[in-house]
Design a protein that fits this description.
four-stranded antiparallel beta sheet, mainly beta, 1 helix, 174 residues
């Protein structure tokens, strides 16, 4: 709700079930990923849809995140991550996380988390590894996790600590 306590304007969805929603840190934007591969970037204060896109990839969108400064939003599905400019919703980059035969094993993206405002990085936690994406440089570095199925990744508020947890009950901090 706005600071005066009145409700936000109603925004109608697309008729397909939503798989995930994420709200920017300033509360002004939201990204909704629908089961039919559509993604909507919303201006919550104005109550309007800023941009919609349909992913050319198969499968529903499974994870989404905003960068700490709200400049970028990311959505993940079917082994790839699309990074959007959150002001317009236009695609900034699309990065394959798993390709070829490895896709069946590494294609499940379990979590996305951004950190760093001046030089944003995106952590992609998948079935058996972490990918660290330098958003502005459009580069990717893979960190193998010795077969651990990483289920969740979180970054501290200060942005200096990353914690990942695995299905085998392992917890790693970096």
């Amino acid at each position: 709700e706005p600071s005066d306590g009145s409700p936000l304007p109603w925004i109608s969805g697309n008729g397909s079930g939503a798989d995930c929603v994420v709200i920017a840190a300033d509360g002004g934007r939201a990204l909704i990923a629908y089961h039919d591969n559509n993604v909507a970037l919303l201006d919550l204060q104005a109550g309007r849809i800023l941009h919609t896109a349909r992913s050319p990839l198969r499968g529903s969108v499974c994870r989404s995140a905003f960068s700490p400064d709200g400049t970028f939003a990311a959505v993940a599905l079917d082994g790839a991550v699309r990074i959007l400019q959150s002001a317009t919703g236009e695609t900034f980059d699309e990065i394959a996380i798993a390709e070829g035969p490895a896709k069946a094993f590494n294609g499940n993206i379990n979590d996305l988390v951004f950190f760093g405002s001046d030089d944003p990085k995106l952590i992609v936690a998948s079935s058996a590894r972490l990918d660290i994406i330098d958003v502005r440089a459009k580069t990717k570095r893979m960190v193998p996790r010795r077969g651990r199925a990483i289920t969740i990744a979180r970054v501290s508020a200060a942005g200096d600590t990353l914690v990942v947890a695995s299905r085998d009950r392992a917890i790693d901090a970096f």
